[in-house]
Amino acid sequence: MSFFEVLTIIIPSTLLTAAPLIFTSLGGVFSERSGVVNIGLEGLMQVGAFTAAIATLGLEHAGVGSASPWIAILLAAVAGGIFSLIHAVVSISFRADQTVSGVALNFLALGLTIFLVKMIYDGKGQTPYIGHNIDKINIPGLSQIPFFGPIFFQQVTYTSYLAILVSFLVWFVIFKTAFGLRLRSVGEHPAAADTLGINVSKMRYIGVTLSGVFGGIGGAVYLVTITSNYNVSTIAGQGFLALAALVFGKWHPIGAMGASLFFGFAQALSITSQQIPYLDQLPSVIMLTAPYVLTLIVLTGFVGRAEAPKADGVPYIKGQR
Amino acid sequence: MKVNAFLKKINWMTLLIPVISVVLGLVCGAVIMFAIGYNPLLAYQSIIESIFLQPYYGGETIRAMIPLVLAGLAVAFAFRTGLFNIGVEGQLMVGWFASVACAIIFGHLPKFILLPMSVVAGGAAGALWGFIPGLLKARFKVHEVISTIMMNYIALYTTAYLIKNFLYTEGERTPTIPQAASLSSAFLANLTQGSRLHWGFVVAIIAVTAMWFMLWKTTKGYELRAVGFSPDASEYAGMNVGGNIILSLTISGIFAGLAGAMEGLGTYQYMTINSAFTGIGFNGIAVALLGLNTPVGVTLAGALFAGLQTGGMTMQSNAGVPVELIQIIIALIIFFVGSGYVIKWAADRLKRKGHKS
Amino acid sequence: MSYAIEMRHIRKEFPGIVANDNITLQVEEGEIHALFGENGAGKSTLMNVLFGLYQPDQGEIYVHGKKAVINDPNEATRLGIGMVHQHFMLIDKFTVAENIILGREPRKHGILDLAKAVKLVKELSEKYGLDVDPNKKVEDITVGMQQRVEILKTLYRGSDIIIFDEPTAVLTPIEIQELIVIMKRLVKEGKSIILITHKLKEIFEACDRCTVIRRGRNIDTVAISETNPSDLASMMVGRKVNVQINDAPYEPKERILEIDHLNVLDSRKVNVIKDLNLTVHGGEILGIAGVDGNGQTELIEAIAGLRKVRDGSIKIGGRDVTNQKTRKIIEAGLGYIPEDRQKHGLVLDFSVGENMVLQTYYKKPYAQAGILKNKVITKKAKQLIEEFDVRTPNEKTLARSLSGGNQQKVIVAREVDRSPQLLIAAQPTRGLDIGAIEFIHGKLLEEKKKGKAVLLVSFELDEILHLSDRIAVIYEGHIIDIVNPKETDENELGLLMAGRRKGGA
Description:
Chain A: InterPro entries: ABC_transp_permease. By secondary structure, chain A is mostly helical. Chain A has twelve helices and no strands.
C-alpha cells in the first residue's frame, strides 16, 4: 500500500472520529474558562447521543427523511443545554464541589438515558438503528482537487468541517468579543469581575450551559455519524477523551481542536493500523492509550506549562475575598 | 452512660446531610416511578423484602458490599488527605488483573502462599496505579483529578491488551483461577442459598479498621490529615508535603486494588476483557461522600448502595421498574450530599423560624 | 451646602458582632477625608456598605445631597463612587487596558474594540498623570503601577468619589509620596476622596479632615489642621496605650543565628536576597525594618528551609542548616511565628489541641513507635491553653472558630513552649486588637530575657522601634544598615528603607 493510500484511509477516519471530540471539548472550554470544571462532559454526550437517536427515529417516522439527523443534532443541543443546568445549579448556586457534581452528572445521564430507552422500547436496552445517517460523502468540487481531494475531501462528513469551522468561531467569541472577555474574567478572578458589575453567576451559568449545548452536539454527531443506535456503551469514554483534549489543548479553542484531531488520529490509527505496513507490528494498545499518556506528559510541563484558568473549580462566594 | 456521652459527641448537623440526602434521593426515585405509572411502594417493598428476607439476596448484598466498601475507603482515604481520587476505577482494574494473573501464573503454589500472594499482588498493582498520579502531583503539580482519569483509561486498555495477548481463553476472558487462590467458600454459599458471598468480607473489615487506626491513631495519619487540610501549614511545620501526597494516593490505590482483587479472587474467579468500566470505582465516590469519609460511614453507605443494587434486580422482576432507576437514585443522592451547603442553610432557616415562633 | 457623601446612622450586624453601630460619615466635596481606626474597627464594613457590597441594617446614604439606595457595586458606580481595593482586583493574565475596560467595553459592530480601549486608557492616564502601559499584562508590571491601574479603573467609570482602602500597605516610601501627589491632583480635578488608613503619618500629609471610628462606633470628626498625632492616636485606641517597652538591659550573649553572604532566588528566579549578612545573638531582639517586598519573606523562608539557598550559609547555634529540611532546622532550635497565621501557622480544621503539637507530634512524649498518645497531647494542650490565656471552649474546638488574637496565641504558645534558641516573629501582631498585641509583645520580651534570640520582622515601625535592641534595615535584598533604636527615628529609618544611606544618596 502506498503512502498516499494510507493517507486516504487515515485522514478521513481521523476527521470522522475527531468531530464529536472537537464539539465536546469546545463545550469544556466554555465551562472551564468561566471557572467551572466539567467532568460531566461524558454524561452530556450521552444525553446528546440519546436525544439524537430518539429524535432521528421520531422524525423519520414523521416522514422528515434525510433532514432528520440534522434536526436531531439541534434537538440534542437543546437537551444537552437543559441537562447541564443541573450541574450549573448544583455547582454554582449550591456551591457543591464541581468534581462531585460532574461525577453525579455522568451517573445520572447514563442511568436516565438507559432507563428511558427501556421505557420507550419495552424493556430493550438499546434503540433501533436510525435510517438516515449523516453519511460520508465526496464533497463536490473540492474532492476533485488532485492529491488533496482524495485525502481531505473524499469519504468525509460535513460535520467534521463544521466542527473545525465552529472552533474558529468559538475562538473569536472567547478572545475577540466583550462577552468572551467577561467570561474569561470570571474564570480568572471572579471577585474583580464582580466589583466591575459583572454578574459572576450569570456568566458561569452561560459557560456551563454552552458546555451542555456543545456536549449534546458532540454526542449527537457521534451517534448520527458513527454508531447509529444508542445503548449503554455508545458513549464509553468519549467525553473523558474530550476532557483530555481540552487539557491537552491548554484550555484554548484552537488547541482543543488540534488535540481532538490528534486524538482522532490516534484512534484512527488504532483501528486501521492492521491494514498499514509497519504499523501492523505495533500493539494497538499503544495507539489506544497514547492520548492519555500524552496528556499526562503535557501536564508535567515538559512540553510547555498547561495552565488552567486561575479560578477554575473554585466556587465564588460573595464577600469572601 | 457511655452511650450518652457518645451520642453527645456526634454532630447532628453533619449527620443530617447524608440522611436527608438519602431520603430525598428515595423520594425523587418514587416520584419518577409514580410519574411513569409504576408503583413505588411495591418497588421499594420488593427491594427490602429480598435483601432482608431472602438469604440469597442477603448474601449477594454483602458480596456487593465488599468491593464497594473498599472502593469507598480508597476515595475517602484520599479525600481525608485533601485529594480527589477519581482513579479508583483504574486502580481496581489493575488490582483485579494482577491478582488473577498472579493466581494463574503461580497456580502450582499451595493455598496458604498463593492466596495471600494474589491478594497482595492486587493491592500492589493498585498502589502503583495510585503512586503515579501521586508522584505527578507532588513533583509536577499535575491535578490528580485529571491524571487519575487518564490513568483509568490507560488501565482499561492495558488490562484488555494483556488479557487478550497473554491470558486469553474462550469467552473474551482469562482462565478461571485455581482453587488455591480462591476466596470463595462452599460454606458461605450454602449459608446464603447459593449466593457468591466469599471470604473477602474479612479483608474489607480489616481494611475498614486499618483506615481508622492509620488516620487517627498514628503519627503518619496525623501528618496525612494535616497535609490534607493545609499543605502550607504542614510544610511550615516541617512535614514532607510531597511525600505525604504520594503516600496518600498509594495507600488509596491499595484499597482500590484490593477491591479489584476481591472481584477477581472472590466474586468472579477470572477477569473479562472490559470495553467499559465496572462502575464500582465511581460508586466508591458516592459511598465515600455519603459516608462522610469516615470508615464507619463508608461501611453504612456501602451497605445501602449494595442493598439498592442487589434489590434493584428483584425490583425489576417484581415491579417491572428498570434497574437503571437505582443508578438514577444514587446519582441524585450524590447531588444532594454535594449540595450539603444548601441543606445546612435550609435546616438553619427552619431552626431559626422554630425559635422565633 | 451638601456633602459629596453623607452616611447617616449606619448600622450593620453580622452573626455575633455589630460591625457598624450608628456611624455617621460626612465627606465634603473636594476634600481628602481620612477614615481612621484600628484593624477590625469597622472601616472596611462601612466602605463595603457604601460600595454596595453589603446592605446596612439601619441608616441612610446621601450622595451629593440625594438619598441613595446602593444595592450593588453597579449602583455605586452609577452614582460615581469608585473603590481602590486593598487587595488589588486585577486579572493577572489580562492587559492593563483589558482590566480597565472590563464590564464597559468599547465595541465596534458588537466586537471588542481594543484599539479604542488603549486610546481611552492613554488619554485618561495622561490627563491625571497616572503613568501606565496599556498593552502590558498586569502580571508583568510593578505594584505601584498596578495601583495606578486600579485608580484608572474608577476614573474610566467616571467616578468623582474615590475610596482608597489602605493604599499604602504595599508601597515603598517613595511610591507613597507619589500616591499622595496623585490624590491631591485628583482633588484639584474635582474629585472627593475617602482614605481608609491606620497610619497617622499619611493623614497629616494628605488629608483635610478625619473621622475616627473605634469598635464600630464613630468617635469624632476633626479637621487635621486643628489636631495632633497623639490626640488622634488616643482617640483611635480609646485609652492611653500601654506600650510594652524593651527595658530589660541589652546583654548580648553568644551568636545564635549567623547568616553569611546569603543569596536566594524568588519564585520568578530573580535574586531577591543579595549577599546578605546578619547575626542575631542570644538575649536580644533584632528588628528587621523594611518596605514589603524587599526580601523579608524570602529571607525568613530561607532560614526555615522553605526556600532554596543559592549561595552562602545559615547557622543556628553554630550548626550549619543551609538547605536543610525544615524539620531538621526546627529540631536544631528554630521557632517560627509566620506572617500568614491562618495559612502557614495553623491547620484551621485541626482542633486547638492538635495544633499545639504540629511540630512535635512524632516525638516523645506525644508519640511512641509511630502511635499517637492522645491523652498526653490533650494534657499538654490544656496546660498551654491555661498558661497562654487562649480563649476557647476547650482543646477540641477547631482552630478555625477562634478569633484572630486567640489563633495567634495558639501559635505563640506552641512555638515558645518548644523553647527554641531562635524565635522568628513575622508581623506577629498584624490585624490584632490592642490587648492581644500587648500580650504578644510581652511574650517576645520574655524570650529575650530568657536569653533566646528573637528575629522580629514587621512593617509597623512603632513595633520595631519599641521592641528591638538593634534594627537592621533591609532594602532590595540586603541589609543596608544596622542602627540603634535609641539613636534613630522614623525619619531616618524611612530614608534607609527607601535605600538612602546616611550622608549619601
